[in-house]
Design a protein that fits this description.
This protein is an alpha+beta fold. The chain is 45% helix and 10% strand. Strands 1, 2, 3 and 4 form a 4-stranded antiparallel sheet that branches. A hairpin with a 4-residue loop joins strand 3 and strand 4 (109-116). 20% of the residues are buried.
Amino acid sequence: HPKDIEALLLIEVDGISAGISEQIEEILRICRNRNVREVKVAQTEEERARWWANRKTGFGAMGAISPDYLVQDGVIPRSKLPEVLKNIQQISKKYGLRIANIFHAGDGNLHPLVLFDASKPGETEKALAAGSECLQACAAVGGSITGEHGVGIEKKEGMRFIFSDEEIAAQTDIRDVFNPKNLLNAGKLFPTPGRCVEVKQNQSL
């Protein structure tokens, strides 16, 4: 691939073999009409497998070019992909950190990888802030702060990007029915302190 390439899209066609060739031709036509710089079709199963193997080593490649990286997991409407990628580019410039994007274009699941050096004072905090803004960019276009990996400790404050205080309170009410002593996944999922009732309950344990 050209050294100055900025994006690579893998498209896999699946289905009844009789219609595959027509689908491939239609995809090629769309790509060329949209001025895609270079379009290749895998000629063998081995070549196809190698391309997907390259995709799966993307995270490892980031580890080879950066001492540390933070992976985020957001999801957006597919039609908003160009807008969100531009926003992430602006976030990258704002914090002075490179952000690589590895994603499932077909289902809108994004994985911005914020590259940083934890040995440099302040870079970890900048990476966390940049990662949070990437999630906020996803939520702002009608997406969510997680596409497949859920919400734990790191992203719980991001719940405010997609839910109001009242909605978070309703969810904690439901959780309290099944987890009254807050023993299951304590301190995860919901922002803390979520509300007065939750704080009082935690103090009474």
